[in-house]
Amino acid sequence: MAEKRQIYSVSEINRKARMVLESAMGELWVEGELSRVTVHSSGHWYFTLKDAGAAVSCAMFARDNATVLFHPKDGIKVQMLARPSLYEASGRYQLIATKMEEAGKGNLQEQFEKLKARLAEEGLFSNDRKKPLPVLPRKIGVVTSPTGAAIRDIINVLTRRFPNLGILLIPAKVQGAGAEVGIAKAIRYLNTRGDIDVMIVGRGGGSIEDLWCFNEEVVARAIFESDIPVISAVGHEIDFTIADFVADVRAPTPSAAAELAVREKGDLEDQISLCNRRLKQSLKTMNQDFRLRLNRAAHSYVFREPAALVKQYRQNIQSLETRMGDLLKLEVRSMFQRLERSNVRMAHLLESGVRQSHQRVDELGMVLRHEMERKTERDRQKLQGLENQLRMLNPLAVLGRGYSLTRKPDGSVVRSAADVHAGDSLVTQLADGKVISTITEKE
After folding, report:
1. CA triplet 151, 156, 157: central angle to 5 degrees?
2. Count of CB atoms within 10 A of residue 27's CB?
3. CA 436 to chain centre
4. Start-to-end Cα distance in the chain
5. Nearest residue to 241 via CA among 223, 225, 264, 228
6. Is 3.40.50.261 the CATH number for 110-263?
7. Closest CA relative to residue 145, chosen from 254, 247, 32
8. What is the pLDDT of residues 231-273, one digit of tens each?
9. DSSP secondary structure of 33-96
10. What's the pLDDT at 237?
11. Which one, of 224, 253, 212, lies nearest residue 105 by Cα?
12. Residue 75, by phi and psi: left (phi above 0), alpha (psi -120 to 50) or beta?
C-alpha cells in the first residue's frame, strides 16, 4: 500500500516558519551598526544591522520610526527593540524594529521623554498660548553662536528677503555644559529691550548630545515666559527638541526660521503696488458713479420744477385729509349702528330674561304652596294620631266606661286591700265626680 504523503507549498512552509520564529523568541533588544540604509517613499526604513561577526536584514515601518529622534545613516551604532520574523515572499530572515536609539544614549532619551511629558501636562505645549508672528517685524533678535553656520544662514536669508531689516545677535553658547543657562539668559534679555518684534533661537545640526542644551527645562521655561514670539530652529528637519514644542513656531532649519520671520520685501512692495492700483481704480470708479448720480439728480424733475412738485404734494395731502375725514365719519356712523344694534339685542335679552324669571317665580310659588299644603296635611294627621294616643293613655278616660280610681288623702293610689285599714278615709274618682268614704270593715 502506497504511503500517504502530506504535501506543503513553499508559501505554507514559510508561513509556518515565520509563526514559529515570532512566537518562540518575541521582542528583544539588539545592538549593532547600521548599514545599507534605505528610506522608502512610503516612509518605511530598510537596512542591515551588523557587528564584527554577522549581519541581519531589518525593517522599521513609518508608524514606528516617526518616534526616532535621529536620522539613520550608515555607520551609526544603535540599540533597537525588534522581533525576529521571516519575509514569506523570499524566505528571508529579518528583524522588525519598533524602537531605536543611538547606542549609549538611552538614558538621554528617557530624560527627554520624562521632561516632555511633565511640561506637556503643565500646558507649556498648548496651542492656546502660542503667539502669532508679526506681519512685518522691524527688528529680529537672534540667540545662537556667533561663529556657527546657523547665524550666517539666518543673516543671508534675512538680508536677501528684506535688506534694511534690523538684526540683533545675542551671542550664546549652544553646546556643552552651561549652554542652557546662557540661552535662557539671552531670551530674557531680549524681552527687556522693547524693540524686538520676534526672535529666532537655535543652532545647526548635530548629535543628541550636541543639541541637548535645547532639551533643558530652563530653556523651555524662558521660551514659555517670553512676551516676544519665539521661532525655534534647532538642528535639521528630523531633529526635535523640547524647545521646538514650547516655541510659538518650529522651523526645521535656521534658514527656514529666517524665511518664517519675515516676508520678502519685493513681495510686499508688489502687494502694496497692487493695492495702490486697486485703490486708484476704486476711487476713479466711485468718482464716475457720483458724477453720474449728480447729473441725474440735476436734471431730475425735483430740481427743474420744485414749485410744481410742492404744489403736487400739497394736493396729495389735501386729498388724503379729505379721505381721512370721510373714513372717520364712516367709522363713527358704523360704530353708532353697531352700538344701537347691541342696545336692541341687550334690551331684548333683558326682557326675555325678566319674562322667564317671572315665569320661574310663579312655578316655584305653585310648587311651594303645594309642598306646604302636603306638609300641613301630614302634620295634621300626625297630630291627630298623637292626640288619639294621648287620649287612650289618659287614666281618666277609663272612668267613663264604669271604672273608678281610689286614692288616699295624700294622693297615693290604692292598688291593694292591704294598702288600707279600718278607719282610713278614701277618695274615689268617678267619671262625673268624687266620692269620699271611710273604711269601717275590710275582708
Report:
1. 100
2. 14
3. 121
4. 159
5. 223
6. yes
7. 254
8. 999 988 777 899 999 999 999 999 999 999 998 877 777 778 8
9. EEEEEEE-TTS-EEEEEE-SS-EEEEEE-HHHHTT-SS---TT-EEEEEEEEEEETTTTEEEEE
10. 79
11. 212
12. left
Please say whether the beta carbons of 259 and 157 come within 8 A.
yes
Rounded to two decimals, what is the model's pTM? 0.47
Order of all β-strands in the sheet with 425-430: 405-407, 425-430, 433-438
Spatial distance between the Cα atoms of 252 and 256, rounded to a whole number of angstroms: 6
C-alpha cell at position 71? 536620522
Residue 75, amino acid? G
Q: Provide the 10 A C-beta neighbour count for residue 124.
A: 19
Provide long-range contacts, Cβ within 8 A and 24+ apart, for 8-11: 10/91, 11/88
Quick check: 183 pLDDT over 80?
Answer: yes
**Distance (Å, rounded) from C-alpha 381 to C-alpha 86?**
128
Q: Does domain 10-104 sit in CATH 2.40.50.140?
A: yes
Domain boundaries, the chain: 10-104, 110-263, 267-299, 306-341, 371-395, 404-438
Other beta carbons within 10 Å of 59? 19
Rounded Cα–Cα distance for residues 28 and 248 (Å): 39
Helix axes 217-225, 106-122, angle to 10 degrees: 30
The cell numbers describing 429, all together, are 274618682
Provide the β-strand partners of residue 261: none
* Residue 380 C-alpha from the chain's centroid: 89
Phi/psi at 145 (5° precision): -75, 135
Nearest CA among 260, 134, 140, 132 for reference residue 199: 140
Burial bucket for residue 28 (CB in 10 Å: 0-12, 13-18, 19+): exposed
Under 8 Å between Cβ of 25 and 84: yes
Identify whether the C-beta of residue 233 lies closer than 8 Å to the C-beta of residue 254.
yes
Q: Do domains 10-104 and 110-263 have the same CATH topology?
A: no
Instruction: Render pLDDT for 8-54 as a digit per residue (tens, 0 to 9).
Output: 788 887 787 778 776 777 888 999 888 889 999 999 999 999 887 88
